[in-house]
Amino acid sequence: MLEVRGLTVRYGDHVAVADLDLQADEGEGVCVLGPSGCGKSTLLRAIAGLVLPDAGHVTLDDRDLGGLRPDQRRVGLMFQDHALFPHRSVAANVGFGPRMQGLTRDEIDQRVEDALSLVDLAGTGERTVTSLSGGEQQRVALARAIAAQPKLLMLDEPLGSLDRALRDRLLTELPRLLRELGTTVLYVTHDQDEALALADRVAVMRSGRIEQVGTPDALWRSPSTVFVARFLGLEHIYDAHIEDGIATTPLGALPVAERTAGGKATLVLLLDALRIVDPELPRRPDEIELSGEVVGHRFAGDHLRVRVRTSTDVEVTVPIWRRDAPRLGDGVTLAVDPDAIRILPAEPAATPQAPVSPTPTRQ
Asked: Which of helix, strand or coil describes residue 197?
């Protein structure tokens, strides 16, 4: 339904988007995930016709959008800076798109009511946007984008300024609403949780290029590069040397799949790779054991992130339920799930990104 081919956008000598390809099917939600400055917002603006690309093509329903004005593209864009009409009412802002589409007054009012209810702003239609907080203005911008019901809806950091409770509710309700409308959605965010909750597929972007595309589960289980692994919040990433099915790492010698090529590599442990062994529970026969000492705790809501210094003097983090927490100084045994080990090509370590807090597995 949406196809971007070879898209390149330059600002002087800076290449913001570099020969980028991306597709989205009818009714699909695709999220472009990446750090600030990687070109995500420029990609949206080029699709919307607000930025002219230096090369490449964008088609929507097999219609080439090149040369069309933004208002001719049947594309909706929620700007990161909201871009609301400052002295118009909330209802006038939200109803702008439906009004431009020639809907009747009753149809416009219904669209406005439904969109404001979704973002928890029911009853605010008569207020001016200048009387609202920054988070409320962001919700009005989101409601305005939804109310227009475009063929392609593009959202630039749609939940960035919302409080936790409303953000969590919209992470559940927004995909359902958009599926009901049959809208194809292209999201942009730097938040891993948001991307994985909202999207059918996630495209990880780096320096103007797409690094990897896949379903949320596929990305979590099989990151293809060190950059993707780090950006998704995986923190246990080590240089390794592989020989005869054994990876020599700072954690010690770990067995890997026999088909893994020998030589230098990068070893990645997935979020559920490590657990603290409970001696009263059965063990998997193929688990790998590491010994260590508890050196720290970090509170994370209903669970703790426990720091363990292994016998090879490497610190690792293991999420556990609070009631199961060992004490500082306790000796523990860690089990490594061999199915949660990934081997990637050796490459220079990327700048670490802030890791997400994984949900622990019960012991």
From this structure: helix
Q: Which CATH number fits domain 2-221: 3.40.50.720, 3.40.30.10, 3.90.79.10, 3.40.50.300?
A: 3.40.50.300
Beta strand segments in 34-137, E: 55-60, 63-64, 75-78
HSE (CB half, 13 Å, CA atoms) of 318?
31
Q: Answer whether 61's CB lies under 8 Å from 1's CB.
A: yes
Tokens standing for 360? 């622990």
* DSSP structure string for 66-128: TT--GGGTTEEEE-TT----TTSBHHHHHTHHHHHTT--HHHHHHHHHHHHHHTT-TT-TTSB
Q: Tell me if residue 213 falls in helix, strand or coil.
A: strand
SS3 183: coil
pTM: 0.83
Find all residues with CB under 8 Å of 66, minimum gap 6, and list them: 57, 58
The answer to whether the CB of 210 falls within 8 A of the CB of 203 is yes
Model confidence pLDDT, tens digit, residues 273-299: 999 998 888 888 888 999 999 999 988
Query: Phi and psi of 259, rounded to 5°?
Result: -80, -10
Query: Using CA atoms, how far apart are residues 99 and 103, in angstroms rounded to an integer?
Result: 6
